[in-house]
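Fold this sequence, please.
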Amino acid sequence: MNYKLTSILFCIFLLTASVRVFSQKLQIIDAILDEPNNTIEIVYDLSGSNQAFSINLYYSNDGGKTFKGPVERVSGDVGVQILPGEAKKIYWNYFYEDEEFTGENLVFNIRATRMDFLGTTKVMGPKAALYSVLVPGLGDYKVRNGKSYWLVTAGTWGLMGSGLIARSGARKDYDNYLNATDVTTANQSFQSAQNKFKTFKTLNTIAIAIWAADVVGVFIKGNKNEKAGLTGKYSLDLNMAVLPGSNIPVAGLKVNF
């Protein structure tokens, strides 16, 4: 690990920045670096009605120009179903998240979303790809909030069905070729069998490609659902911030409601 962590990260600091939206208030209270355990603890207050939130955090290595995340090596009051309260704590293991972490030019961005705004219908995570392995398009129904994507199923099976019909025709034409009594009929039957078999292979290849793409797409979408907390599972995220050219830690906040 690169140990260029600036000295300002080794002390406790008080942040008074806060954001208030729709009677909800998020305020960063304290931050503590635990160097022996390679973790950073952040304490924050989330006030408002007894409404659950999804809390995630993204981080920037370029002073806040671009953000990455949500990060994964965290625990505490982050993820989904986080209720308002004082002294909420989040712990980030920065070493296992990023072995090259230095604390330089780093800004974090907290994002909070009310759970009722995420919708009541729970979707699946990456395991939904197994449904698409069994039936093309079925996994989409599990990860995309009720949308069935039946065209994926119909299209894939339609192509495979058409391919099987072409293959059956190729076999019949090949039998005609074997049973032909003259050269002209034999040549025509053989050529027809070849063309239909090529059609079978083409349609089958396209169908398999669509099926495989659907499985991959469902896995990616399911993974995003899990990270966003839409599957009912916890996705824990956090990071720390230091603005370039500054001797004082600074927090960048963004709250979505």
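The chain has two domains: 7-118+232-253, 126-227. The chain has a mean pLDDT of 74.
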